[in-house]
Write a structure and sequence with these properties.
alpha/beta; three-stranded mixed beta sheet; about 325 residues; 11 helices; about 40% helix
Length: about 325
């Protein structure tokens, strides 16, 4: 049993700069997010997390990708599709992930232990398109989703080749809403998974009673879902556990919707139930969703609690 995060972590941008940083800022070479990435990674590692993220510090889960993709533009914080979606103009998250991985190496004295490391995270094509406004070119969302999948595949392959993460996670919260064509969403995941030599995970939050059977057929190695803040999904998992015999479960055991520490007995009880359903070797423990909105001290304690429970049953 391993521990991980869904992605985001509270961001604290550095206010007072060193002389070197001030000089870099004068020449436009200072990146205020590097320190935030480092702080996020070290916080996750200090809490005991096995597979960390870079903290997703640069913005919301949609625009951090769409601002680099031709055919899409950002207006007043929202993404608008203005022409055919094409390949990204540059790598999007590779440099941040490489930087974060070096932080992990330094943390462990130069060699990352087996079972530890970083994962790449990409917001899925279905969620991005359903979060965007189509202004021209596409008559339906489904064609845009497939074109965006081919575009994001370029980023996914770059992450796999240049970062060598433990696995790559696709965030698709819209798949629980009943608003999407699941066949098209599955085809988009197939595009992303093609020729990938490391595991692919898919995170879907929300209530999954109407979506789980479809999700179990998606071409992914790990299904990541929320269970702490959702009193339906555990029953759904238990009822349909025979459908996911070939997949591991990312098990959201911490409620990310509340800004207070979860009750340890409640978390323990939830994890025991999950172990009885799928077995501890098939579980990755994590929060229900990202922790960006939580105070940093609360987010840290939540991650510590996950690892307290993980260590108890490992």
């Amino acid at each position: 049993m391993k521990s991980t995060v869904v992605g985001s972590f509270p961001v604290e941008l550095k206010e007072s700069l060193s002389a070197k940083e001030k000089l870099l800022k004068v020449f436009g070479a200072y990146d205020p997010y590097k320190n935030a990435i480092k702080d996020c990674v070290i916080s996750q590692l200090d809490a005991g997390i096995d597979i960390v993220s870079d903290g997703q510090v640069r913005g919301d889960m949609v625009s951090i990708f769409t601002e680099f993709i031709p055919g899409m533009k950002i207006e007043d914080g929202n993404t608008v599709i203005v022409s055919k979606i094409r390949k990204p103009v540059s790598e999007i998250s590779v440099k941040d992930l490489q930087f974060a991985k070096n932080v992990i190496k330094d943390y462990y004295g130069g060699n990352i232990p087996d079972g530890k490391g970083i994962k790449g995270i990409i917001t899925g094509p279905t969620t991005i398109i359903h979060s965007s406004r189509i202004e021209s070119f596409y008559k339906n969302k489904e064609d845009a989703i497939i074109d965006l999948a081919h575009s994001l595949k370029v980023e996914l392959d770059a992450i796999a080749d240049k970062v060598s993460p433990v696995y790559i996670q696709i965030d698709e919260p819209f798949l629980s809403t009943g608003m999407v064509d699941m066949k098209v969403a599955s085809e988009a995941i197939d595009i992303l998974h093609e020729d990938l030599e490391i595991p692919l995970a898919m995170h879907v939050c929300g209530t999954l009673d109407n979506a789980f059977k479809d999700l179990s057929k998606f071409n992914v190695d790990i299904l990541d879902m929320e269970f702490a803040g959702n009193d339906v999904n555990l029953g759904v998992l238990e009822k349909n556990s025979n459908l996911i015999h070939d997949k591991k479960i990312g098990f959201g055991c911490i409620d990310s919707s509340i800004n207070e520490l979860d009750d340890v007995d409640d978390v323990d009880d939830l994890v025991v139930k999950a172990i009885n359903i799928v077995g501890k070797d098939n579980l990755l423990l994590d929060p229900d969703c990202g922790l960006r909105r939580a105070p940093k001290d609360i987010a840290f304690k939540k991650l510590q609690l996950i690892n307290q429970i993980k260590d108890k049953y490992s």
